[in-house]
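Deliverable D4.2, example record:
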Amino acid sequence: MKVVVYAICKNEAQFVHRWMDSMSEADQVVVLDTGSTDETVPLLRSRGAEVTEETIVPWRFDTARNRSLELAPEDADVCVCTDLDEVFHPGWRAALEAAWVPEAGQARYRYTWSFNPDGSEGVVFWYEKVHRRHGYRWVHPVHEVLEWTGEGSPGPTVTVPGMQLDHHPDPSKSRGQYLPLLELSVREDPSDDRNAHYLGREYLYHQRWDECIAALERHLALPSATWADERAASMRYIARAWLQKGHANAARSWLFRAIAQAPHLREPWMEMARLLYAQEDWDGVLYFTGRALAIRQRPESYICEAEPWGPLPHDLRCQAYFQTGRREQALEEAEAALRLAPSDPRLAENMAVLSW
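Output generated by the structure prediction step:
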């Protein structure tokens, strides 16, 4: 089958060679450059990418994605949308071909969105930006998603074992455009629960606590907001905002709601454990971290955060046991934490102190 990679970019010369190496398994690479002033365009062309230069005004990610998709040839079978700060592991094309079926609409594959300082994986979820050439378009000004516009059914989404995409972004790039674009997205489609949640989360990032609370309460009130995992995340973010406003009791109340909403997730249990840790409620820390650790199946959605699946639960338990005079149990938890982050000097120091 004919596989075409398409992308949008602006001033990403630093990523060109790495990205083109990764995308070389495709039959063709097409790129929409939206105004680079560095060497991005000539570097891409020197590596064989077909580059079109256009300015998107007003800027919207969905408009840019749709324009870049138009650059893919009509006879392409499968289109693969990536960004220049992303890298496929070698062998992705073979994995995709092995899993794809003629009637498929999209493919889902493993995506590492962030990495921890020691190089281990941070936030990991499954992505669906591979799709058949015709019948799809991108929607929403930001946090854009694929929407089926063809006739009949889009066909099944196939899972591709062994297809892995890693995200290595430029940390100096601003995400300042996200907030106004999310506000626009919610104005355009007030009933869209996904972007209502994202807007509240963005207000949290910007430390606009009251707007965060209002936006996320609105998300929770939407009839379409039925996904328990995302609802629990909204409740956790509301709790964080209330805590920043100095209302620990309100935060605690919202965290209990988050736990009740999604008891199958580690995140709400751990968020409560961290609140109780700050309040030096050591037995509470042990209870809630214990409930978190009892959850062994890591979710495949973007809701899954890195810390609850790293050394943090054991680290908090180590501190709680130590503070309550249970040194032997504290040592066991320190060992467990260090196994999950062997290069962390603080965890190594804890081990050394407790082993002495």
